[in-house]
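[Primary structure, fold]
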Amino acid sequence: MDATVSQSEIPGVYDSLSKTYDIWGKLAETRARSRAIELADINDGQHILEVAVGTGLGFYEIVQRNPNGANIGVDISPGMLQKAEKRLGKLAAVNYELKIGNAFNLEEETGSVDLLVNNYMFDLIAFDEMDGILEEFKRFQPEMFERLEKLVVQKNELTLAEYEQLPDISIDYAIMEKTAKGVVLPSEFGWSDIGSWKSLYEFLPKGDYNNVIDGDVIARNTENCFILGRDRLIATNHIKNMVVVETPDSIFVSDLDNSRDVKSIVESLQARGRREYRQHKTVHHPWGNTTILEQENNYTVKRIIVYPGSSAELYKDLMKIRHISVISGVGRSETATEKRILKQGDTIIVSGKEAVRIENSDEDLLGMIEVEMGRG
């Protein structure tokens, strides 16, 4: 089995994490990030480069400490950079630049920066220890290993239906409690498995009226609450000890003490065959992402984003006809019968008998709206 994550897939991995990354970043990285900035001993007027800037949690403070210098943040993920740009927009500063870049091929010349900052950059290529992990996997979970190996060899990816047929067991129970190649080191640090919204609420720093709030939120007479918003405005009034979590797919509201019950709600969605259990509104791909804007039985409206230098493959579906309109950027489309340049305002119509490949060879994101007509 090949456990390598390709370079082309890495931006998509981090894009999928970008929406909720701040929760993890504030939870697990705040102390180390603050210590790193302290050790950097920033002097105003420096030329500073942060590699793997992420959502800008550390970069925000760097820009504040270096108002008369030049601050550059680089990341491989457009999704992360969009979050960082939104965060930096709260400052009046203009002396910063956020851009797509790869740590292995930086544009900056050697010696051109005064300070290089790098926190939590994971090199998602191949790990030397991966063969050993797979050997233990095969030893302790031979049936699951064999099934996975056959699936990957045959098609190099798993469908949701195939994944759901695999045993529901975590790596600690399946392998780590059995292997002699793993070790446990005694360490003195606080730990919580963060198994519920309540435990996350208890761990995070509190704001006014003992609330934890992240997102576009207006809270009036609200106490001891955890409120997380992503896309929509949340307004609360006269509530206590509550959890409110808004995502594009659904809104979860519960009292804090029973917030762990979300697992049983997911099981209920599965038992009822609800679309929300199987399908997220936004799906991330190595080449970009798609977001369902509206969906009925006979049509679906999607927003499609293609990353610079990437290509989207939209496969033929005899039951559907696609109308694809460009709303931003420049790209190229290719079907079996036609090749053409696409720019803002252009529309292509793809019959169900055709597959279409759309390439973004520009430096900016390529945005499109797709209307699928037909049952599927």
